[in-house]
Amino acid sequence: MNAPAPSGPAPVPLLAPREGIPPVITDDGALAEAVAAFAAGTGPVAVDAERASGHRYGQRAYLVQLRRQGAGTALIDPVACPDLTSLGRALGRSEWVLHAATQDLPCLRDIGMVPFRLFDTELAGRLAGFARVGLGVMVETVLGFSLEKGHSAVDWSSRPLPEPWLRYAALDVELLVDLRDALEEELRRQGKLDWALEEFAAIAAAPPPPPRKDPWRRTSGVHKVRRRRQLAVVKELWTARDQIAQRRDVSPGKVLSDAAIIAAAQSLPPDVRALAGLQGFGHRMGRRQLQHWQSAIDRARALPEEELPQPGQPAGGPPPPRAWAEKDPAAAARLSAARAAVTAHAEELNLPQENLLAPDVVRRLCWEPPAEPGAEAVTEALRTLGAREWQIAQTVGPLTRALAAGD
Question: What residue stretches are annotated with the HRDC domain (predicted)?
Fold first, then answer.
């Protein structure tokens, strides 16, 4: 997939914000001034947040950056100013511009900032057909500037924040509105702007996601664990690790690696000595820590059969596609035809197939197709499964034909 923007001269390094690095806002007085300035500003508001993923527990924001015409750039410390409801309210119905909005919206919501409408420059890039949609490469490709790299994965919970990090953070919103304007024009040129606006409205209107069911099943490598007793070990170790990580406010991976959990589940060590010989439970781990993990393993070993977790997907959705051929050959044939149809049409439209229609929607449609064939029934099924109207309009024809062919 080729980016639609033409190639040009070498990008110009963007080394510092136009007005310099603003002081970090850490008190109510400075926050009130920023609220007034952004309320009086004009046009869209560039918004970004920095988290400490891989360092701290959870996904809270440790720095919030904003930029708006007439207000300049603001850097806010949400640890010192944990309630930004007044700022969110001051922005009112203004359009927020974010890059990969779904990543930042949960932590912004936690501090009182919820957009009424937004423009997601990453999603806009996907819909416009750009092969690479990271902020740096998008700014370079579309606007001809190169942003500093290297601070995205640092520990943003550190205090005080070093000046190079603050410069990086300010530059993240420096050209975000300019990027938004260029992408809007590109989407309009391709006839996709209405699609993008529908996507953005869906993101802004989406309620907070419910807690993930069985989060322990997302342990990396859990697919290697087949037996129910071993799955119980994964669950017990994951839960014990999560409790420690939350109490210490550190990333769970810093407490115990996923690889160590899987190694223990596969080996089912009977005692601390056996556990100490496994990957991730090496000589640096004290006996008290080892005993804590062994106790979790022993709890799993003692569970009665009827309380052991079931393998595979949690109930409520179709089985993994690899099992379809055996369980329901007709559904497998429908899925193969539908996937091919969606992929082909996505290529024609020059956008990723997962943005044309979510893979889970395709799977659910094929596993339980409408009782009555035809475009009207497929349209209603897609709508029920959460597809947007532009997605339905683009895929109902190919999918209706694919479902008929698969049967």
Answer: 227-307
| Helix, strand, coil percent values for the chain (each to nearest 5) | 55, 10, 35
Diameter of the chain measured on Cα atoms: 68
Please state, in angstroms and as integers, the Cα–Cα distance from residue 191 to each residue in 128, 133, 316, 390, following that order: 10, 19, 37, 12
Q: Which residues on adjacent β-strands are paired with residue 97?
A: 46, 119
The DSSP result for 352-399, as a single string, is -HHHHS-HHHHHHHHHS--SS-SHHHHHHHHHHTT--HHHHHHHHHHH
- pLDDT digit string (tens) for 217-264? 999 999 999 899 999 999 999 999 999 999 999 999 999 999 999 999
Report all structural domains of the chain as residue ranges with CATH numbers, in order of start.
12-205 (3.30.420.10), 215-307 (1.10.150.80), 321-406 (1.10.150.80)
Pairing label, strands 117-120, 12-13: unpaired
Strand positions, DSSP E, 37-134: 42-51, 61-69, 72-76, 95-98, 117-120
Q: 348: which 2 tokens?
A: 């024609």
SS3 state of residue 128: helix
Q: Are 104 and 81 in contact (CB under 8 A)?
A: no
Residue 125: name the closest of 184, 171, 176 by CA.
184
Helices and strands in the chain: count of H runs, count of E runs: 19, 8
Beta bridge partners of 24: 75
Strands 95-98 and 72-76: unpaired
Q: Are 120 and 185 in contact (CB under 8 A)?
A: no
What are the tens digits of pLDDT across the range 268-305?
999 999 999 998 997 778 899 999 999 999 999 999 99
Single-letter residue type at 163 = E
